[in-house]
Amino acid sequence: MTDRKTKFTDFEALAENSPLAIYLVGTDGFFRYVNKKVCEISGYSRDELLNMEWTKLVHPEFREFMLGQVDKRFRQKGALPKYEFKAINKDGSEIYMEGHFSLVDIGGERCILGQVLDISDRKKMEIELKRQEESLRRVLETSNLGYFEVDIAGNFLYVNDALAKMFGYPKKELIGMNNREYSEPGDAKKVYKVFNKVYREGKPVTFFDWKIKTKKGKKIVVETSVDLMYNEKGEKIGFRGIVRDVTREREIKKELEKREEYYRTLFEGSASPTIIVDGYKIVDANKAFEELSGYNREEIIGKLEWAKFVDEKDLPRMLEYQQKRQIDPESVPSMYEFTFIDRNKNKKDVLIIVTLLPDGNFLASLLDISERKRLEEKLRFISFHDPLTGLYNRYYFEEEFNRLENSRCLPVALIIADLDGLKYVNDTFGHKMGDEYIKACAEILKSNVRKSDVVARLGGDEFGIILPKSDEKAVKKVISRINDAISKFNKNKKEKFKISISMGYAVSSNNKLENNKLFRDADNAMYLEKQRRKKRKEYICMR
After folding, report:
1. pTM for the model
2. Is the pLDDT confidence value at 463 over 70?
């Protein structure tokens, strides 16, 4: 007994302060030991855990799997690979775990030693990433770029309309096809090597040329980027990629090397702004570049350097590229984005493609992508903002609220505001007038807080304001400013309606932020204020 106790005491001393949740389970399925991290994660006390079967902590979806793993541990020698599973704590919340398990002897008793890590935050990020990927897929459906997903063997799982059109096949016919069926014989091996490299190294491969034979037998060259796809367990399940038909670009490059006259015709007639650069001087520019830059050819050729058209934030990077390109053109990207400055100091987002010419000069073709960038920025704005008021939306509000829980911005004050009489306005004067009422209230709330504060529209007539580093005195000042602004607005006889807002607030402690409680307290305070206003008959009234 003394030897067994000594061994267990040594084990306990090592395990108790480990950042991992460590436990021992006997052959009867009951815990023999749990460290304090297990108690912290599960929500159970040590005494409660030592009197329960380990399966109670396993999510029902994973119990059969885990029982099988435990059986393997007791029957097989040697280590088995780590794996992920889902647990459930005392209050019923789900926890994602990753564990290492081994068979040990503690004083003559065979036990399973479990060492597990809470990976819930990581899994949540993976789930959010999957949601974003789905959003991206919807965007790619309307893109001119081809998009695909294939399994590990290279068989199509999904393609968008642009890729199907590019390859000349119906989408349904492409699903299940392997790259060997539409690749040129020499390129099939090349494609395999690239995909194999991505699989082994886990890193995306930037663009490479790939010769494709369409359904009608036409040969095209595509530029492709490839990255890995993972499932929820982090296992590699396939590849995804973006494809662009560059057949015409490659043909143009070859023809430029063969015939200068043909090059000149193409250069001048190209719709893409294009210049030829000797070192740093621009030695030729086409009509499209004149239109993009605002200069005529006489002002440009031999007189201006390309750096004149580059925004200062991008200039160091592009100068570095230029220096390296003159030594080894393959050592720097041939395609990248930068901010273009025209004659009138207007900034434009531009994609540049740089090609080395036979005489040692460089051909730079530009594409104005300002509109695309604007749309991307608009999409980002829409995802975090309420379309009617321009305030943050509920999703952003909750993300920011959760982020503050572990920040150094305490105390945090929360104001919940509810518009009085919105239903009356909508029912009586129509939703257009109701929208004006909502926007007017939103502007008052936004105009009377700090830039660092978060003002969000949480629902139809509900708003929330997060005030980091604000105590009760500070939040009362904010509410007072808002009420003063409302009074000023209501005295303006030119306005179509009077504004009435019921507000409630709550303030966290200086060392702890309990989000749910803070929101509940502020919401309850708002509700009580609304009831008081109703009793005093402070209803909204139209002018």
Report:
1. 0.38
2. yes
